[in-house]
Amino acid sequence: AIIEYANKFREDEENPMWPEAQDFVSITGHGVKAIVRNKEIMVGNKSLMLDNNIDIPPDTEEMLTETEGMAQTEILVSVDGELTGVLSISDPLKPGAHGVISILKSMQIRSILVTGDNWGTAKSIASEVGIETVIAEAKPEQKAEKVEELQASGYTVAMVGDGINDSPALVAADVGMAIGAGTDIAIEAADIVLMKSNLEDEITAIDLSRKTFSRIRINYIWALGYNLLGITIAAGAIFPTTRFRLPPWIAGAAMATSSVSVVCSSLLLKNYKKPKRLNNLEIHEILTE
């Protein structure tokens, strides 16, 4: 969006050439800086400016506070150590985000927002979707540390992210979920990729996982009971009282039947359908729009 807007200033030129940035440095969690036309340019958040002793005027501070309350992210620009501009950008919430958080709560899953954005924007977004716990201004390594902290407390952690800064946390989490439209690094680091980039698929993935483990438990219980009974009869435990003995060929067929029954039980997962409440969520979104 910034590049497209900047190009409007050069529309009258046939072959607009932008000056080359030299000595480019990316400062993780803060911003970037480079030399352009012999001037030091810094673009980043408020922390970047303060760390480099760049003064932020009171009226700019007021503007930053106001935009944070509107869930906008501020990008500050300085030239040769002097603040020259502020860009406010916003990323709209994904459709159904509030509904997804509500459904996760009903599934006894706690949602935590961990972001590198400022506190004002983070709290505004969290309140809009119904998230109570917020961790803002977190660097990539701090996101991973928070995941490990939750794991040490006994929680099973799933991390959903789409950016480069989310990659360490995606690796550290018990289950990493990457948005399909995210960066290649995030997708590579994740265990599950939501190909359609719909947050609703996160609930589907969790529900399908639970159904799969439930099926595994059922198969174990069935196989255990079936084999305990079959082995007992085959060993002749009831022969003294019933005079019934299980012939070897029947015992072999019974073992094969046990394996086939477990496979057929597992194949029933092919009939899996996503939770009906997700259909209601999509209908709600259409009506809302």
UniProtKB/TrEMBL annotation:
Its main location: membrane. Belongs to the cation transport ATPase (P-type) (TC 3.A.3) family. Type IB subfamily. One of its GO terms (biological process) is copper ion transport. GO terms for cellular component: membrane. It is found in: Membrane. NCBIfam families: ATPase_P-type (TIGR01494). GO terms for molecular function: ATP binding; ATP hydrolysis activity; metal ion binding. Pfam families: Hydrolase. InterPro entries: ATPase_P-typ_cyto_dom_N, HAD-like_sf, HAD_sf, P_typ_ATPase. PANTHER family: P-TYPE CATION-TRANSPORTING ATPASE. The keyword Metal-binding applies. Keywords: Copper, Copper transport, Ion transport, Membrane, Metal-binding, Repeat, Translocase, Transmembrane, Transmembrane helix, Transport. The lineage of its organism: Eukaryota, Viridiplantae, Streptophyta, Embryophyta, Tracheophyta. The chain crosses the membrane at residues 220-240, 246-269. This is HMA domain-containing protein. It comes from the Eukaryota. It comes from Citrus sinensis.
